[in-house]
């Protein structure tokens, strides 16, 4: 299991915030909302969800826009957006350090920030990164050398039925390895949900 640590309410301006560390990867997330929405983005039946990702240094690249879209879709599916029509929920993500599990760390930090904000949610969500090494081994621990990674899998599960609500893959792998990665990640997601509950209880 990844070594997880989390601090809630670390930022004063957002409605909810969380700084989460997954091994050596660290991400800071702030949730604003529901807030007023620009006229061109208004939805009459639900809140619109916006996500902004800031890398550790430099401007966001094309790949970073993909992560924004992924996290926005996850939050949109997990929040009870219909309770907040004609408004917006803003998710801001700041990369602090990346040792290989950036996407799953950002997703999990977003879930903790949502819980910290008190916004209504249909479910909690937990992301797990699984690595396929060039030795054809699946591991949840990021290899020290990035060149040793043959493929990368990120799976996001809900806490209601353990369903996959999002996934992201990179590299070359077989169908069997894909299914094995799902099984390994699903088992690990249970530990992430246990960590969420423990963190929330410790904050009370």
TrEMBL record:
A GO MF term: RNA binding
Pfam families xref list: RNase_PH
The entry's keywords: Exosome, Nucleus, rRNA processing
Keyword Nucleus: yes
Coiled-coil residue spans: none
Subcellular location: Nucleus
Transmembrane segments: none
CC per GO annotation: cytoplasmic exosome (RNase complex); nuclear exosome (RNase complex); nucleolus
Keyword Nucleus appears in the UniProt entry: yes
GO process terms (BP): nuclear mRNA surveillance; poly(A)-dependent snoRNA 3'-end processing; rRNA catabolic process; rRNA processing; U4 snRNA 3'-end processing
UniProt cross-references to InterPro entries, sorted A to Z: ExoRNase_PH_dom1 (IPR001247), ExoRNase_PH_dom2_sf (IPR036345), PNPase/RNase_PH_dom_sf (IPR027408), Ribosomal_Su5_D2-typ_SF (IPR020568), RNase_PH (IPR050080)
CDD domains: RNase_PH_RRP46
Gene3D superfamilies linked: GHMP Kinase, N-terminal domain (3.30.230.70)
Ranges of residues in domain Exoribonuclease phosphorolytic: 3-119
Membership in a protein family: Belongs to the RNase PH family.
Name of this chain's protein: Exoribonuclease phosphorolytic domain-containing protein
Organism ancestry: Eukaryota, Metazoa, Ecdysozoa, Arthropoda, Hexapoda
